[in-house]
Amino acid sequence: MTAIDLDDGPLESVRFTGLKPGPKLIVLGAVHGNEPCGPTAILRAIDDCRAGRLKILRGEVTFVPVANPKAFRQKTREGDRNLNRDLREKPLANDYEDRIGNPLCALLRQHDALLDIHSFRGEGEPFVFFGPQNNRGELEPFARAEEEAALAGCLGVAIGIHGWLDNYARLLAIRARLDVPRLAVTEGYGTTEFMRFCGGYAVTLECGSHDDPEAGEIGYAAIRNTLAQLQLIDAAMPALALKDVIEMVDVLLCETQGDAAEGPWRTGDAVPAGAIIARRADGTPVTAPRDGFVIFPNKAPKLGEAICHFGIAGSRGPAA
Fold it and tell me: Which of 7, 55, 152, 164 suits a disulfide with 130, CB 3.0-4.6 Å?
């Protein structure tokens, strides 16, 4: 079988339906193909459901172990491009991610809540991304912030981060000054943003580094906690785990090839005002504008990519 034949293969999903009413949950893994923790955690949960160790009594759960089969088969972040950018239905598909994105979007529309399981490059503590407060704005209107924050708080990780889409808009404003292709703000829309657009709510769980053997365990525990929090199974409500909530407020871009993050910083690390967090190609240091947190430091960014995002202590808690 050729690679082209494999790329024509189906998107696998496994659904368990309880006999009593309840919410509909979807759990995704391997939106990026080099992140094995999602498939590991999800396949274990599927086995538990089939064996009766996890009994879905209410609502539904749909598991998608591998959301991007081509990237997963290649063990690369992307197949043709990043599936978690500009995710929406596209009647005329231009690449593999457009093609797989259509059935994936159709699945998302059928559900109330999404748990999207990821890992990240480099080192750092696991964390959860959640969305905006309730609002009627243009960028990401939303009306289910309380439910989403409650889900984020129960997953078992101590760090929560919000403000992604606003910060992505800031990134595009800076990028527009550079000699790089223009991007639309929809490039910042991935699985969670599409889910909110459809009237649901969603969180992205970052389980740690790609090669951390504990990442799959963190993802599996989060699945069990989510099933309990939504009461799809008979289990005690999981304990609140969030301790630090970070709001993304700024982004530092690679404006000249050679600009890069500097220092031992990891995602979620607290940095004091004035600490060096990056260095320009000409040797000029870039310092933290105030006390805050480093998010996704990149020591080898391409022109127009983020060197790092910067956050501050947020006022939102799990029930805000």
Answer: 152
